[in-house]
């Protein structure tokens, strides 16, 4: 399971049907799921994301988490995070999980994040064509992979 986490002052997702969902200060998480992922990957990544200290404290040092600032979270599924680019110029998405496997893990990620935050998590729509409009603060962008645990 991979995430690309961006610290944002605002983020908006427009889903193909025209529905808009948005957050103010917080984190935008792009979430990629592979066939090898399971509950342990969800548990590890959700805790890392929620507790990631990427918000400034009073001294201007990145030392506060989403919990500390009572920030918002938006999670958007993105199978292209699982792209393999080793051979040729056309990315392969063979590692990306099929809907039957990915949707339950995506929904669990959101449910666990809501439980830890004590608030609703904004989302995209799994498998839909979406447009993201974000203001990345910093910019702060962090990549995490539950298989590498770096």
What does this structure look like?
- The protein is of the alpha/beta class and 150 residues long.
- It has one domain: D-tyrosyl-trna(Tyr) Deacylase, Chain: A (3-Layer(bba) Sandwich).
- It has three helices and eight strands.
- Strands 1, 2, 3, 6, 7 and 8 form a six-stranded mixed beta sheet that branches. The chain has a two-stranded antiparallel sheet with strand order 4-5.
- Helix 1 packs parallel to helix 3.
- It is globular and about 45 Å long.
- 33% of the residues are buried.
- The mean pLDDT is 95.
Secondary structure topology:
Blueprint: E1 2-15, E2 20-23, E3 26-32, H1 39-51, E4 55-56, E5 62-64, H2 66-69, E6 72-77, H3 99-117, E7 122-123, E8 130-145
Helix pairs in contact: 1-3
Please name the defining characteristics of this protein.
150 residues; D-tyrosyl-trna(Tyr) Deacylase, Chain: A; 3 helices; 24% helix; 36% strand; globular
Question: What is the compact description of this entry?
Answer:
By secondary structure, the chain is of the alpha/beta class. The protein has one domain: D-tyrosyl-trna(Tyr) Deacylase, Chain: A (3-Layer(bba) Sandwich).
Mean pLDDT: 95
CATH class category label: Alpha Beta
Portion of residues within helices: 10-25%
Which residues sit in consecutive blocks of at least 5 with pLDDT less than 50?
none
